[in-house]
Amino acid sequence: MISNSENTGTKSKIYPIIQTAATVYVKKIVLFSRNDLTHLYGGISKHMKDDSIEIIHLAYNSRDKDILVNEYNAENVINYHDEIALLLKNEKPDPELIQHIDYLIIEQTNNRFCLNSAIQSDRTFAGMDYDEILLLMQVYYKFWLNLILDKKFSLLLHEPVAHFSLQIASVICSKYGAEYLTQIQVFGENDFNWIFVDAGNGSAVEMPALLSGSAELDTESKKKVDTYLANFRKDFALLLPEIASKYKSPSETGAFRFFVKITKTVLKHFVQKKFKKQKYFLQHEHIESYGENNRLNLSEKLKNQWDAYFHFKYDEFDPGKKYLFYPMHTEPEAVVLYWGDGLYKNQIKLIENIAAQLPPEYFLYVKYHPVIKDERNFSDFKRLKAVPNIKVIKPDTPGKQIVYNSCGVVTINGTAGFEGVLLNKPVFVFGNSFYDLSDRVIKIKSIRDLREKIYQNTNKTFKDDKTLLCFVKAFLEISHTGYIAYFSNFRDLLKIKHDTNIEVVSREMYRYLSYDSQD
Fold first, then answer.
1. What one-character DSSP code corresponds to residue 406?
2. Which of 102, 121, 362, 501 could form a disulfide with 115 if both were Cys (CB 3.0 to 4.6 A apart)?
3. pTM to 2 decimal places
4. What are the distances in angstroms from CA 271 to CA 63, 198, 261, 332?
């Protein structure tokens, strides 16, 4: 690793001024493997054999490293967990470094974040000691700084930014001129398609250049776009029902499954209890499981599940009413936290505020994401149902159907917003998304601006005009073939053939890298 020894002009400490290094970087790619992504990236590295591409594997822990080495014959593998643990051993509080990190975050996120807002957006920091968090931030900063100085990579590929350890990676990549990208699954022309987005804010990295070019469509392009829109609009079935069927609402699971769930909750509680007595920053590998699973105590969890099963009833979907649609995001996830600028993680309060801004006789239809593992707190739904113009719709109601009959979509940045664009609805977006550049999208910078924007746009009627067709044409051009949502057991549910799929995804990645090198 490279030591921090470059001069920045600070008073006493010496931290590097990071300069754009486009002339230094070659096509060195860091594939950051964690959990099932290990199989995606391990497989990709076997097919990306090219003298112009150097792949550096970053394995989250020893288990991921063993998979990469033993199953995919990966070379040049760095163990992230071990590197972090090594840095932590000798790390001391450094107020000047913390100040430097704060300024760097503000600068590279264009004032979207500072250090403390970044802390609040990291779900794993909840309940941790502030001094320990700052120490861990120093270590994350040093790790990514050392890695980019040492390896001089031009592309980092991993999950969306969902923790500070990834946000600081995004910040440093931005400062150095490297890309930190993530792949997201989208509705395209094939069974499975995906696009590259900026891991820090969710924007489609290939879209701006295409939309800035010619706005004309030739006959072949128009036919392709028309076919895509027709296929999208003819099917209103629930997206990926194979996955959604696993996670039924509490009242639909049946008594036996309900009591099985209660039993699992109790067992899980006692298994995880052993982590409570351990210091966070010395137990890096357990930070995520600890932070996510200890928000409620056991009695609160059990009461929540009991109330949700016996005392909650969803509202019926009535397409004939005047309404806007808010699709609830799963929590805590990157789209709510970092892609939402850290401002909207309290979705219940946000929904109440949205409903308060609607015109008279308008409802706000709210639907929780069908692909979830845990239900929300019963008290959350109780709060929503207490608002007269909020309707909580069953999770297995097809979202596209709700969008189609709506007067518009209000979202932080979910895919329902993209569906709204394709169905010619006004889409009010609070966060950052891959479809931001559509003229159907109305960006909302503050909840106080929402009322005016809604009153101005809910009666608008969009048609398949030139701007929509050009947007869809650009979207199809940046859409890559293959399945990349390697998490949970979704691959098995969707019967994805791993080896065949990896060949396709690798070819598409190579196409992107080759095009990028020509620019």
1. S
2. 102
3. 0.83
4. 21, 37, 15, 22
The ranges assigned to domains in the chain are 28-154+166-177, 250-310
Residue 495, pLDDT above cutoff 90: no
> 77 with 57: CB under 8 angstroms?
yes
Task: Please give the radius of gyration of the chain, using alpha carbons only, rounded to the nearest integer.
Answer: 24
Report how far residue 140's alpha carbon sits from residue 158's, in angstroms, rounded to the nearest whole number: 16
Under a CB-based contact definition with an 8 Å cutoff, are residues 262 and 302 in contact? yes
Map residue 61 onto helix, strand or coil. Answer: coil
* Cis omega (within 30 of 0) for bond into 16: no
Question: Rounded distance, CA 338 to CA 13, Å?
Answer: 30
pLDDT above 70 covers a percentage of the chain that reads: 79
Q: Are 291 and 272 in contact (CB under 8 A)?
A: no
**Measuring CA to CA, which residue among 397, 406, 393 is closest to residue 320?**
406
Here the tokens at position 142 are 């040093």
The share of the chain scoring above pLDDT 90, in percent, equals 54
What DSSP string runs through 84-108?
HHHHHHH----HHHHHHHHHHHHHH
Mean pLDDT is lowest, of 303-317, 401-415, 482-496, for 303-317
pLDDT of residue 27: 84
Burial class (CB in 10 A: 0-12, 13-18, 19+), 499: exposed
Helix (H) or strand (E) holding 223: helix 219-234
CA distance 372 to 244: 8
The full 3-state SS of 422-468, as one line of letters, equals: HCCCCEEECCCCCCCCCCCEEECCCHHHHHHHHHHHCCCCCCCCHHH
Q: At 410, is the secondary structure helix, strand, or coil?
A: strand
Q: For the residues of 348-381, what is the DSSP string, one character each? A: HHHHHHHHHTSPTT-EEEEEE-SS-SSPPPHHHH
d(CA 434, CA 212): 16
Taken in order 78, 76, 30, 176, the sign of the CA dihedral is positive
* Mean pLDDT within 390-405: 90
